[in-house]
TrEMBL record:
Residues 44-55 have a biased composition (Pro residues). The chain crosses the membrane at residues 120-147, 159-184, 247-269, 303-326, 332-358, 365-382, 402-428. This is AI-2E family transporter. Residues 1-86 are annotated as: Disordered. Pfam families: AI-2E_transport. Residues 18-29 have a biased composition (Basic and acidic residues).
Amino acid sequence: MSRVPSLLGRLGAGLTRMGERLDERRAEAEADAEAGPVVVDPAMAPPAAEPPARPGPKTTEGKSPVPVAPSGDHAPDHVPPPPSYAPAVAARPDPVLAVPWSMRVAAEVGWRLLVLAGTLYVLTQVISAIALVVLAFVAALLITALLQPTVARLKRMGLPRGVATAVTAISGFVVMGLVGWFVVWQVMDNLDDLSNKVRDGIEELKRWALNSPFHVTEDQINQIAKNLSDTIGANTNEITSAGLQGVTVLVEVLTGILLAMFSTLFLLYDGPKIWQWVLKLVPAAARPGVAGAGPKAWRTLTAYVRGTVIVALIDAICIGVGIYFLGVPMAVPLAVFIFLFAFIPLVGAVISGALAVVVALVTDGVFNALMVLVVVLAVQQIEGHVLQPFILGRAVRVHPLAVVLSVAAGGMVAGIGGAVVAVPLVAVTNTVVGYLRAYARENALRSAVAAEEAPAAEPVPVATDRE
């Protein structure tokens, strides 16, 4: 009986320690719950107890059970992570990010240049297919730019627009026709004299070649003449076909002249209405800029045509007077050719001057040809350094390299007509691009100033249920 109290005391002490341990574990569990989930290394974790087997579908002997897809609350909430022994696979970067920035910029610029080149190629093919119509219309534009100031002056004098247009157009066409007739008449009238002088000039050149230090013999000269004669005789069919082709070209030229005349009449009479109709074809967003660039381009074209006519007239008069006093035959037709070729910058002056020198060489000898060359070079120097800067001014100033390249490109695309049109086209394009660039800069500046001067937006009141 004496041991019963001591057993009861040890049992109570054991129960007290067990309660203290339970309290400590409860406190640790609450602390772990507040700190978050604990990541446990799966290799160090003890094997989990297998869940109790769920009743599966009924099977028959010799057949495997049919799996049943989990559904409802029994479906897994997430995909289990790969096992720790699986190899790591790096994610592939975006292909766009793998291309260097400079290469991306080059590719963007490249395909845009290809699209632009394709557009220009198609445009040139279309222009080549209808070259006669395009050249006739461009010639009409140039003639209109030359005659339009006269129409405006006659309107200010009180004449109706139709009468002013008719008077100006008829007067211009009559003057051009008289000039052409005068040139043909001079050539036909001096043809016999020219042929005799050419024959004498060839004999003089032959004597000069025999007495020259080049040691040319008479047999060599006769052989060259015989080769030329044989070449002409062997190519008779080609010459005949070229003559027939020349007839076709003459018909096309007459057709182009008629188209240019009709186009000039309509441009002089209905020019403003035609421009308004063209503006309607332009998108509305770009219409104000194009409407401002049009008058600028027209003033540039007018200044170019009037300045070129004045410069060409001065060149023709100066060179014509010079070769007339030097005794070169057909001085007046040569002066007219110099006037016409002056519309082709740089190249036209060289061709017309070379033609005058050749005529002087064949008809009057080497000394006279040298004097003609001096006259031509002097007039061309005065034209390049005095006349063109003073008359044309800064309105149509184009770099000489751009002039040479544009004349070459125009000649390759459309022959002589393309060479004539190339420089005014470049001048007008330069004016239009400069105006559009300035217009865009002014619009951006105006928008920035308007945004700075605009008052701050007032807060919008928000409606509540009490209101």
